[in-house]
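Key idea: predict the complex, not the pieces.
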Amino acid sequence: MIPKAELHCHLEGSIPPDLAHALAARNGLDLPDKLFDAEGHYIWRDFLSFLDAYDRVCGVLRTARDFGDILYSYLQRTAAEGAIYVEMFCSPERPKSLGIPYADWLGALVDAIDRARRDFGIEARIIGICIRHLGPDRALALARQIVAEPHPYVVALGMGGDEAKFTPADFAPAYRLAHENGLGCTIHAGEVVGPESVWAAIRDLPVTRIGHGVRSIEDSALVEELARRGIALEVCPGSNVALGLYPNRAAHPLPRLIAGGVRVTLGSDDPPFFHTTLGTEYDQAGLGELVLRAITRTAIEASFADDATKAKLLKGVPS
Ligand code: ADE
Ligand code: ZN
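Result:
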């Protein structure tokens, strides 16, 4: 099996329907209406209704243990597909809205990572992610929280949510704070909105990676700039096809980004929503084994893990 590393997966977006059912039952909750189709898959139509379905799945969560169990089960499934490293987007906004103290939520995630390392040999880190449509003030509060209670497993600040809302510059104070305190920085851009959103992100924020960024392909000067600056893209082809950015995997710009010299990695984004897994992304990328191994090495190098962890992981991926 090709060793794999993933830099783009959302914790709550990784909840498979059967786990959503189990968590709802454990918490004595009914699952929301119209969340599943006849085959038991999540229902959504477009980007905004996907974000809405995502929020409704989060409605089954109640305790810090729920978040830890989601992470542990994801690491178990992904290690079985050959993953050696996962950097997970985890939003402190969700536990906060449930009244779970940050330290309890983080403690459950840290425990899940330690157990998964022991049980499956996989390494993992956490990216604290803010939610763009909740606005810059909430993002800054979240960055302050992460900085105030640092943990070696919380390695970066990220941002998902509705890309059409606000501008990257609006979030500069949050990102500056994270960067000044030694955290890595990444942001979703160039997914729903075009290349201008990637230009704005790399101009106005101290990011070394872009979540998706695939629409950079529409602007050759931007492709050159990404290659020149060594900015890594967290590419999630299955997500992009599911959300209708491209009609199928053959039309996806991944090979053109690689040909343009851009550093790329592969991720599953919200795997059960998009009927994918990290293993599927590697299998269906249309790339040979040597290129896939190079992608894993790029992911480790572009990760926000400490240098000793990166060196150890890289030993497991001979080129
Ligand atoms: N939150 C979860 N998945 C996302 C995506 N693909 N884009 C933006 N925000 C998200
Ligand atoms: Zn994402």
